[in-house]
Amino acid sequence: MNRKRLLITALAILLLLVSAVPAFAAQQEKPEITAKGAVVYCQNTGEIIYEKNREQRIDPYSVTKLMTVLLAVQNLPLDKEVTVSEKAASQPGSTMDLQAGEVVTVEDLIYGAMLPSGNDAAYALGEAVSGDMESFTKLMNKTAANIGCENTHFTNPSGLQNKNHYTTAYDMMLITKAALSSDIVRKAAGAQVYRVEKTNKSEARTLKTHIEFLKDSDSGVYAGKTGYWADDDCSIALGYKKNGLHFYIVLLGDTTEQRSKDVEKLITYANSAIEGIRVVGKGEEMGKVRIKHGAKTRLETYTAETGYAYLPAEASESLISTRVVMRDDLEAPVKKGDVAGTLQIYAADELVNEVDLIVKENVKEGWFTSYLGISNTTAVMLGIAAGIFLLLCIWVSITRMRYKRRKKRLKQKRIMEIAKEEMRREEERRERDWRF
Questions:
Q1: Of 272, 75, 265, 95, which is closest to residue 184 (Cα–Cα)?
Q2: At a CB cut-off of 8 Å and minimum separation 6, what does 174 contact?
Q3: Cα–Cα nearest to 131, from 63, 66, 83
Q4: All residues at 6 or more sequence positions from 299 whose CB lies less than 8 Å from its CB, including other chains
Q5: DSSP of 3-41, one letter per residue?
Q6: Alpha-helical runs (H) found in 192-308
Q7: Domains observed in the chain
Q8: d(Cα 374, Cα 298) in Å, to the nearest integer?
Q9: CA separation (Å) from 385 to 99, 379, 389, 392, 393?
Q10: pLDDT, position 9
């Protein structure tokens, strides 16, 4: 009896252990990284997914340029021409190879600061914005404070080492978030290559990014900036978006050997930490969009990818809702794959994800009827219908004319018959009268 009870007890414990294995497996441990400070922020849920020494003051080095470029975008037109000063051209460290007196555009300087991390380009932008470096660094610090940074102080626009030039992983996340929210900054910080046309001091040159993740289309990294002082002291700030999951990742005080590995660890960890709820699948029909001046005036749209909602742990799936927003400016010609709208995914009335809606047909420009909102097919059908109607009208008209002519002939025939009858009767009367 005791043996039987022991056996039952052992089996029960074994079942409990087996059932607990998935739970233990699902809980991924917080990764160990080399960076002195780090933050991963989830834009979808508004939560910090990972942090390490988030308030420790660390030199960001060239990641500083995200702030410099943001201020340039906010204060200068892209096509403004800037004459590079002697001071800008002689900046030490990484460079865009600018020459004193060289005339370049603000856009060229933005890409020069982002891709090759040109200290000369950053300095030239600072001078173009504020006129002198003291005024520009004051603007940098004021803007950082407005963003919400409490442990940040900049002394230069490029990130050159200075004991009074520092930030924290948390503050730099706020700056990265603000910078990459700008379409112009995001495009420059996500470019792999940029061509600077010939200037008054230089032949055309090609700029290339330092961020290896951008070269991998499957990495999820869409933009960012590296910082470097030595192999054992570097930094990186990235924007990551994949399957609708949106992170900002900042590493400060890392090593060149471990920096990319640390980023990969954090991406893996962050993806496992946020539970995604599948809202819509790829290729699902989402309604029709109007095509202006097209051979077809309406096209079916489809989701370009699977759409997920990423919610805080305490949130309920019942809070999820969707809204289809079609473009009202889509004009022929339209190509297969063109974005025609978005499926917006909300959690408790807050937008948490957007999925592009695309068309799967090519549409050429339509005939003149398309300017009235009538497609070529409908125009043909209307033309056929109008032709049939016209033919019917002609047939009816001809039939009526024939009927009238026939009726007239019958009437004339009847009159002739009546006349003949009268003549016959008149002859009969004359013949009777003659006899008598």
A1: 75
A2: 147, 148, 149
A3: 83
A4: 288, 289, 291, 334, 340, 359, 361, 363
A5: HHHHHHHHHHHHHHHHHHHHHHHHSPPPPP-S-SEEEEE
A6: 259-273
A7: 37-274 (3.40.710.10), 279-372 (2.60.410.10)
A8: 10
A9: 72, 10, 6, 10, 12
A10: 57
Contact 363, 336 (CB under 8 A): no
Question: Is 300 exposed, middle or buried (CB count within 10 Å of its CB: 0-12, 13-18, 19+)?
Answer: middle
Report CA Rg, the chain: 39
Spatial distance between the Cα atoms of 428 and 314, rounded to a whole number of angstroms:
120
**162-215: per-residue pLDDT in tens?**
999 999 999 999 999 999 999 999 999 999 999 999 999 999 999 999 999 999
Cβ-based neighbour number of residue 384 at 10 Å = 10
User: What is the rounded CA–CA span in Å between residue 195 and residue 381?
Assistant: 51
Which position has the token pair 């004021």? 142
Q: In the predicted model, is pLDDT for residue 420 greater than 50? A: yes
Exposure string (b/e) for 236-263, b if CB count within 10 Å is 16 or more? bbbbbbebbbbbbbbbbbbeeebbeebb
Measured CA to CA, the distance from residue 304 to residue 354 in angstroms comes to 10
Token pair for 150: 């409490």
Determine whether 1 is exposed, middle or buried from the number of CB atoms within 10 Å of its CB (0-12, 13-18, 19+): exposed
Taken as a whole, the chain contains a residue count of: 436
Q: Distances in Å between the alpha carbon of 384 and those of 293, 369, 370, 380, 390?
A: 21, 15, 17, 6, 10
Q: What is the pLDDT of residues 214-239, one digit of tens each?
A: 999 899 999 999 999 999 999 999 99
Cβ–Cβ < 8 Å for 49, 77: no
Strand order in the sheet with 298-303: 285-290, 298-303, 350-359, 339-347, 320-326
Residues 310 and 320: their CA atoms lie apart, in Å, by 10
Distance CA 210, CA 212 (A): 6
Quickly count: other Cβ atoms within 10 Å of residue 85's Cβ: 17
326-327-332 Cα angle (round to 5): 125
Look-up: residue for tokens 């009827």? 369
Q: What pTM value is reported for the model?
A: 0.73
pLDDT tens, 335-369?
A: 999 999 999 998 888 888 889 999 999 988 766 56
